[in-house]
Structures are given as structure tokens and as C-alpha cells.
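Morning!

As promised:
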Amino acid sequence: MALSRRDFLSRSAAAAAAAPALGARPPAGSPAGPTDRIGPEPAPLRLRVNGVEHEVEAESRTTLLEVLRWQLGLTGSKEVCDRGTCGACTVLIDGRPALACMTLAVDAAGAEITTVEGLGSPESPGRVQAAFIANDALQCGFCTPGFVVATEAALRCNPRAGVEELQRAVAGNQCRCGSLARIRDAHRVLSGGEPAPVPPGNRAACLEPDRPRVDAPEKVCGAARYSADRARPGMLFARHVLCPFGRARLVSADLDAARRLPGVVEVELGVGEWFEYSGAPAGHVCAESPAALRDAIAALRIDWEFEPVETDWLALHRQQHGPFPPREEDLASFRGADRAAAALARAEVVVEAVYRTQVQVHTPLEPHGAMVDPTEQPVKCWVTTQGTFTCVEAMQRGLELDPEDFEVRCDHVGGGFGSKFGAGREGLLAAQLAHRHGRPVRVFNDRENEMLDTGNRPGSLQWYRVGATREGKLLGGFVRTVGITGIGGGGGVTTPFLYDFGALARSHDDLRTPHGAPRPFRAPGRPQGVFGIEVLMDELAERLGLDPVEVRRRNETSEVRRRMLAEGARLIGWDRRRPSGSQRGRLRRGLGCAGGDWGNGKGRCEVRLTAKPDGTIHIFSGMQDIGTGERTVLIDLAAAALELPRERFVLHLASSKYPYGPASGGSTTARLTAPAVRDACAKLKPHLPAREEVTVEGSFNDDYWGRGGSEAVQFVDLVVDAETGVVRIEKIVALQACGQTVNRKTAENQIHGGVIQGIGYALFEDRVTDPQLGFMVNAGLERYLFPGPLDVPEIVPVLWAESDGLGVRSLGEPCTVPTAGAIANAVANAIGAPIRELPITPERVLAALEGRA
Amino acid sequence: MRRFSYHVAADAVEAARLGAEGSALRKAGGTDLLDRMKEGLERPATVVGMHRALPTGLRREGEWLWIGAGTTLAELGRSAELRRLLPSLAESAGEAATPAIREAATLGGNLFQRPRCWYFRSRHYLCRKKGGAVCWAQEGRHEHHALFDNDHCAVVHPANAAPALIAAGAVLHLVGGDGRRRQLPLAEAYTPAGDDPEVEHRLAADEIVVEVAVPAAALGPRSAHVEIRHKQSFDWPLAMAAANLNGRPGLVLGAVASTPRPVPLPEPPPADEPGLREWAAAAARRAVADATPLPGNAWRLRPARAAAERALLRAAGLAVDPGRKEER
């Protein structure tokens, strides 16, 4: 056969390899033409983006994403993993989806590039964007542009794509908030179907039953600017260098080589020092561009001398606290040991078990960081944070300025989940460098730094020995809990909880490991505690041959949850539940349930309203919206209180110059905002309509507090493949009290998010650490798994409102508390063996099946 | 990524030749290469772009189905012709990685991507595959590592498309930098990590694959590819298997050893359904019988066995569970 390239071609080919539209456009060069040699020096490059020709400058190694974000200011394409594993930078190249981070800019020359900005604008959104807005298919919005573009690509490929095809088209897009069920709703509509029906009663429970979140248009169109998107002329780029190993000495580094490189501004490194955990900051590098920053870090050629570390929890427990589980002689030291021993002596049945939960990493898609701009007055500090006001102290320290001389801003935040209180070491470094160099400085983690040391949900070991009557009434016993807290503390496990355990004697310690410290993570302490408690309840029910729901009802501490148990059992079809272990086939169905709760403390919150003669009412609040919907809550609360349409309100949010609002943690924002807004509205109402500008201040006010709690119960229906150990969840019913719901769509979306993160905690998420050197070997989005579009079941969020006079109550946290326990119990029901460790991997399912046999 | 000069090769011979010069590396879709370069594992002074050099698309000629090495996985997944002729390849390509990666990744790149071992892929670990003295997976975390052939280096072969092609008896057509041509059965193209972990295949430094040819005897509806995944959206499989029952029966496991692992099928498949089910179950048991798992990954033998059995059943046109609707 003659070697002629044309022989091989079945159609016109030769599109850029990374530009995937093979055959869709004419050859980029003559097949017989000379070899193109490009770079390495920067050279002018023409790119056609969103229908406009741009001349940019790129090296051969420059990615399309870098050009879009830093040269063209098209920041709708997000940098999340920079390795092609998240889909957040998805663009269209000649109509096909492409990952901008894995596409060389030079390979995209000559192609038609379309970014999310090219699909529509907030004023005139495209079809996919409109469907995402209407179905509230977003929370923080950081992944949203990628989902929008990938969906658009699928529709261009097949205008009649069904919902399954659209879902498969976004299978490579990662969403951390858990809006995936809403994205499926949007896909249903785009494929000509109807969105999932609203659970009965949800509409009536809400102040705003139908309208979507107010910031959806700017988020779905890529117009929302996150702190990571902020750029200014002359901006410097900096990043920390972390010790990857559990214990290591930085023997040597070529500081001179790094400093000599063009564009390198500052290199600081602890040469000769020992570092005591994986993720410990060893120094930082600052440079004129992202490429110069990476070159400088590579040029350091750091040589680490490492020592083996112990990472086994039981071995560490022996070293630090003695044997686990405790020996008989240890029990006397438990708080309340005498009464507990007496209760066990009375018990007709005793259940004893060890439960174990993993370390879960927050993994917000917008990594931790800040851009601090000292060339503005006051100095602008764009931080990605869950608390505008929690950053003031670090900025004050780093900038050496008084708070009146700078402003903390965070217009949009790409997720936090508890890890973004304060400005972090990243924000502090940005402030210090900005102060030192007098230039804007951007410090944002790369994905590995983000995974190693920006907080986590501590792991836990839990040992229970609990006695009960033959009827399943708990009498008491012993519980020993251990929090796996890295170099930090705060590993508390919430137990006892939900049920009246009688005389329970407790002991708790934190366990040091050579890893980063925990930070609060959505309902700190509770998912791990509830996993232990709820699996224990099912083990007790199993021992006694009682129905698990009935055992719960007999021990419940909440009348609300008792009623939720009955309603949830009805909604999931609990009467279909078969005795545990009674199935023999390959696919085995399991049903399970679990409860949850969260507190509702009062606290400080202020808000300012200004009514203008043009009829607009301006709301000022320093609070932030991290994707929970706080913007929407503020406007819908004021609209309801003043009985005015949304369109009359203008919101000014997320600045330390505005009235004080709480951080987004502990599910505080909506419940503290509501009394403050109602207070302000009551003061403003007599002045309306305003003939001249009127300003009033409102603050948290007991008069508007109302009644209500945040009880939760969830039921799960799933199928286990007994040959592979793979779990497939089909349906989750989430009953959730949150007092007076403000906006239905954002509230239901919060529940979806709590459930989906709970699925991740139950099945997938795990910080996998090398037992030799302590490094987190899955420190990226390829191997740190959380649910994707194809892993999300039907979710039925039931807004539970029993009485009148309800105040706004906690929502974000209680809805993630029951999920893992309920899933574990459903798996146990399917396979006939308890699941005592998270995550529920195929390995653990198969081991449980084998142990039973 | 270190700076590099980018040479876009005009044809296959040039791509083969330039890619053998100095520290040069070849790039097709780039989804694997750029990842390794970003991690700092590769620092080529020259990258050779092959996107103008590689043939794309499918054609029937003589007794073969010819597939251009530059064909993207997305094209393979979308091709109605391939679904008809070699469904196992269409399925494996159409489910690999993510939709956007499939649009860029080529068949040639899929077959010769480098393994995904998390120690190999981290710049912090110097392992045998990178010229070091240690396989960190042996004493480390190795749940995703090899069940066979793992005492020296425990990587698994990641290529989704390889089992289907080997089960079909596919042959690589190679071109050398001096214009020479050679054929190499895909089954013989890979070298086990036990020989030399730094070498993964038998292609010469100046050779590239330009086409993959599948014999007509292996074409037809009776082939299937099955992946068992923990997570359904974007996850590497716990195990995969491809079966081809069109001509000479073939079964190949993937993601269980440093090379795709053909499984001998001593007897031909029986014609009746009960017999066929028994035959498939026995073949699947045999497929993992001589495994040498590491302490932390023996549990993957069960999913590997399931993948093998299901691939055989589906290739035979049977549902995985008797009486249950096929979930293809």
C-alpha cells in the first residue's frame, strides 16, 4: 500500500488535535506544506472568539483558558482543576465541546471558539441559559458555565437529544454544591419534557413559591465575577509552596535559578527546615504572570528529605490514647460510668459495634484565595469567603491599614461549605504582598494545594456499647468517640443525638495525624455522629426483629420527627421493604432511613434600606451569598414585607462597608436576616411612597423571631449489585423543617445540595493518604470522587411546615445530616449485613457480603 | 509546562521522525500529554503535533475495517457504522473519560496513553516507572492497581479501547521516521511492567501508529465492552472486559494488569442459553483464577469476574440477568 495520507481519509480531516471538530472544517494547512514551527517565544496569534477576531500574544504552551481569562477577560470559563477533570472551562470549538485548559491556544487558531458569554447575556440569555435560570439549576454558579456550554454542545450535535443524552453530555462536569437534580430538570425541559413535579405543600409553605434566584442570569451567562476572576493591570500572581509529605525537611532548593527567571518578583522558602504535616506551608513565590509563577516554582527543584510517618488510626490511637476500642478497665473513667453500667446491667439486649467515618475534603470549585488591589482607594480586597467581616482582621494585619482604609468584597463565591471563614493564609499573603509591592496581587490555590490544607471534615472512630429493652427502648451504655484531626482539633462527634439514649457515658479525644487541620464542614460533627447512631439503631432493630422505623419512634426526642417518620415511610413506600438479607439475586433492593437536626440560635444582623423618589428601594447588607441564595432571600423577604414587586429592589451586598451581617455558617444567614429585614421594612413602610430619599436601619429583632425548628428525616431506596458491590441510589425523600421558607426554589435546591453532598459522603468521598509518606494521593478532581450527574437519584424535598407563626429557620445544614446514615441502612437492608464504615465502596459492600456468608 | 517549540508535522513520516529527536514528545489530542507536562513529569523541548499527520475516520477495504489513528473517541462513539460492525469498540470509546475529553482524545492516543497510577502521576514520588528504585504502590495505597503481574510495578493498563481491539484481533499499522512500514498485532504491542517498567510498548522510538485494522471475521453484532465503575459519571473502571464472539471467540480484561489481558477460551460457546451462561461463568472464573492481587485489591477480582462474564453474555446477545431486559 502506498504511503499517501489521502488514502486514509474517509473525509476531510486535519483539524487541530485539541480542536475536536475533525472533519467539520477544511484542513488547517496544506497536507504537503512545510512543517509549522511555533514558539517557544511568545508570538501574535489570531483567535476568533464569540464571533470576534482577537489578536493575542501566546507562547506555544499557553492554553486557550489562559488566553480567554487573562487576555480577553472572558472569565466565564473557570479554572478549577486545570487538568481536564472538571469541565468548568468547557467551550465550543467549531460547535464541539472542548476543555480550554487542555487546549493549546495555537491549536485553536482558525477555529470558531464560543464561550458561555457567546451563548447569551443576562439581558438576553440563550436557550440553555434560560432553562437553567427557570429551573434554578445552580447554586454557587462556579461550575454552571461549563454545564451550560456542554449542554449547548449536545443540543447542537442533536437538537432532539433526550434527557438521558443531555445528562450523559454533562457527565464530565463536576458540581460541588449539588444542583445536579435541578440541572436534570433543566435538561428535561430542554428535551421537551416537564420538570419534576413540586412536592405537594411546598408552594404553600413559601413566601415566594415560583420565581428563581435573582442572580441566576449573571451566573448562567458567565457575567458574574468571582474573586478568582478579578484582574487588574500590573497584577502579580503568587502561590504557596507546600510540603507534600507527612514529615520532611526541605534540604535544598535552587532559589537563585528561580529568582533569575524573567518576571519573578519574590521567592521565599524555608530551606533547611523540617515540616510536620502534608500541606504545611514552606514558602511562597510571586511573579508577573501565571506562567512565570509556575516556571519559578519548577525552577526551584526542591529536594525533600522525608521520613516515614504513621497514618493508621488505630496505631496512632494506641500511641496517643491507648487501645481502641477501650478496655474494660478504661470504662470507669468515662463521664457517667456508674449510671451507664447500671443501665447495661438492666438491659435485655446489648449492641456493641465500632463505626468509622472518613476524612472529607470541602473541595469548593473556586479555590481559596484573594486578589488585593492597593492601587484603589480604599484598598479593594476581593476575597473568596463565607464571611465578609471575618476577613477584616487578616487584611488589617497584612495591609497594615485601619479597616476604614480598605474594603473586603466577595460579590460571588464559588462554594465554601465551611472552609472559607476568614481570608485564610492565601488572603493574608495577598495582603502582605500587596502592601510590600504596592501592586495588585492575586493568590489562589492550585488544586493540589487546595486539597492538601484548606480544611476537612475530620474522620471519626466510634465505639458503642448500648443496652435496650426487648421492645427496643434504649437504656444507656458507653460511647467512645475519636476525631481524626490532623494537626488541629475540633474533631467532636455529635452523639448522643436524635434519640433518648438513657444513661450514656461518654469519652472523646482528638487524634493527631500528619495532615492539615479540620475546618467546619456543613453541619460539623453531625453526619459522622448520625452515621454511627443510625446504623446502631438499625443493628438494634435487626437484633430484636423490629421494624427500624418503629424502634426510632420509640426513642425519638422530637414529635416533629416522629410525624416525619410516618410521612416519609408513606412517601418512599416503606411497606415494600423486605427483611434484611432475604434477597438472593444479583440486584438487591434496600430501604433505609435516618434523622437529623440543627440548632437555631439568635445573633447579630443589620440591614439598611433606602427608598428613593424614583420608587426603587435599595437594600444594603455586608453579608455574602456563597450560593445559598442570600441575595434572593433578602429581596424576597423585603418584597413580602413591603408588598412590592421584586423589580423595585436594588441590592448592595457583600462589602465590609455595608451593615454587619453574619458569616454563612451554622445556617445562620437566612434566619438572622429575616427579623432584621422585617424590622427595617416596618420602619420604612410609613414613609412609602417616598417623595424624597429615606433611609432606615433594621436589626435582628426578637419580635420577628417566630417559632419552629429544623428537624430532618430522610428515606432512601437503592439497589446493590451483589457481584460488584456497586450501589445505585434510586430515590431519596428528604423531609425538612425550616420554619417559614422564603424562596421555594432556592430552599429546595439547598435540600438537594445537602442530600447530594450526603451521597458523596456516603459512597465516594475519601482523603486517601499514602501510608508511607502521608501524601494525599487523590489530591485532585480525578480521584477525589463526589457525585456526578449520573450518580444522582430522584430527590423529593418536602418542606415541612406544621404550624402558623413560623420564623425563618436553619436549612443548609440539617438537610445533609441524615443522608449517609440512611444510605448505609438501605445498603445493609439490601445485603443483610451492617455497613459500619464510610465511604460505602464496592470493596466494603463485598466485604460485608462475604462476612455475612 | 516548560516552554517548548511546537512542530506541527505535515505527515506521518515527519511526525515519526521528529518525535524521535532529542527530548521531543508527540501530541495527538494532548489530553494525556498535557496532563503529564503540567504535573512536571515530562519536560520536552519540542512537542510534535500530529493532528495534520494522522488519518481519521473508518473505511472498509479488503478483509479489514481500517480506523485512522487520529479518529477521536467521540467519533468512534457516534459512528453508526462502528456500532454495527464492532459495538465493543463503539461502547468503550463512547464511554471513556468525559464527553469533552472524547472530542479531543484520539484512538492512537488512547491506546498509547500512560498509566494512571497515582504515585506515577505525582511529581512527589520517584517510582520505578520514572527510573526510581521503588514501587510505592506495593506497600502503599493500591486499591486501583494491578491484580496480575504486579510484583515489580503495579500499574494497570488504562486504555479503554484496547480490550475490544485485542479481542477482535486488531493489527496496528506503523510508520517509521524513514518511511518504513510495519504491521504489529495489538496483542503483541504492549510490554509488561515486570520486564522494564519504563517501557510500555514495542514500538520503536521513531515509529507511530497510523491505522488500526480489524479483520472482517471479528466484525458483526456479537461483541461487547463492559466497565464496572464505582461512580458512574467520569471514573476509572474497577475492571473492564471486552468480548468478541463473531469469529474466533475472544475475551480481554482491562485495568487489571500492566497490559490488557487476553483470557483463553478453550471451548467454543454452546448454542443454547443455559449452556452459554454456564460457559460464560466458567470462563470468567478462569479469567481471574491465577491472579496475584496485592493485599488491598483482592476485592477487585469479583468485579473483574463480573465484567468478564457480562461482556461474554452481552456479546452473545443475552441480558446479564435471565429474564431481565437488556440494559445496553
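The longest strand of chain A covers residues 474-484.

Hope this helps with the figure draft.
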